[in-house]
Amino acid sequence: MSNACAIPCPYCGKDVDIVQAMEMVAGNEWTELLGGLPISLVGALLRYLELFKPTKQELRWSRRLALTKELVPQIKAAQVKRNGIVYSAPAAMWEAEMMKLVVNRPESLVLPLKSNGYLLSMIAGRGERAAAKLEQDKIEQQRNRSNVGGAPVSVAELAATAQKKAKSKPPANWKGGIAPDTS
Q1: Average pLDDT in the 77-106 region?
Q2: What's the confidence (pLDDT) of residue 11?
Q3: Alpha-carbon gap, residue 58 to 84, rounded angstroms
Q4: Mean model confidence pLDDT for the chain
Q5: φ, ψ for residue 6 (rounded to 5)?
Q6: pLDDT given at position 1
Q7: Whole-angstrom distance, CA of residue 168 vs CA of residue 174
Q8: Measured between alpha carbons, how far is residue 19 from residues 15, 26, 62, 63 in Å?
Q9: Residue 17: φ, ψ to 5°
Q10: Which of 51, 98, 114, 129 is most deeply buried (CB count within 10 A of its CB)?
Q11: Each residue's pLDDT tens digit, 1-51
């Protein structure tokens, strides 16, 4: 009996459903795509991809492949591009954020996920915070360089100086209130 949606298996020669064959090819391509990634990152990716698993069925290899194809080039480049901005994102950050989603999944997160958008926004957010900290450190360094007179430049230093001035003692010969003007 011949099935119109079947092709011969390249290994055993038996007829295989074409959809199954396409899934097998996608699985092989997915496996090749992971080459060069640290094994711990591959483990995190596998667990992360389970967030896309539809209820009562397995995640198709073609779906895994599509999701992974979006991520792997960014992971290997150690960066993420979000809304036209490129942020530094080393492999350890990718792994940490994937595991954060898996282990400490926010209650607001609706499963199964539809895209990598949530993960990408988390990593971009981390990149934005890191960039903001670098910018703040740079501003602080510039303040400190321009402060040749030694005056306090940070809010903490200003507060400490004001506190010292407020706690100063009156001169030893001070007798209290101001004498009335008798002229």
Answers
A1: 94
A2: 84
A3: 34
A4: 86
A5: -125, 150
A6: 45
A7: 13
A8: 12, 10, 10, 13
A9: -60, 135
A10: 98
A11: 455 688 887 788 888 898 888 998 999 999 999 999 999 999 999 999 999
| Residues 32 and 24 sit within 8 Å (Cβ to Cβ) | no
Contact between residue 42 and residue 57 where contact means Cβ atoms under 8 Å apart:
no
Cβ pair 155, 163 in contact under 8 A: no
Q: Report the pLDDT averaged over residues 42-71.
A: 96
Rounded Cα gap, residues 163 and 157, in angstroms: 10
Q: Identify which of 108, 106, 54, 98 has the alpha carbon closest to the alpha carbon of residue 74.
A: 98
Rounded CA-CA distance 102/43 in Å is 11
3-state SS, one letter per residue, for the chain? CCCCCEEECCCCCCEEEHHHHHHHHHHHHHHHHCCCCCHHHHHHHHHHHHHHCCCCCCCCHHHHHHHHHHHHHHHHHCEEEECCEEEECCHHHHHHHHHHHHHCCCCCCCCCCCCCHHHHHHHHHHHHHHHHHHHHHHHHHHHHHHCCCCCCCCHHHHHHHHHHHHCCCCCCCCCCCCCCCCC
113: left (phi over 0), alpha (psi -120 to 50) or beta: beta
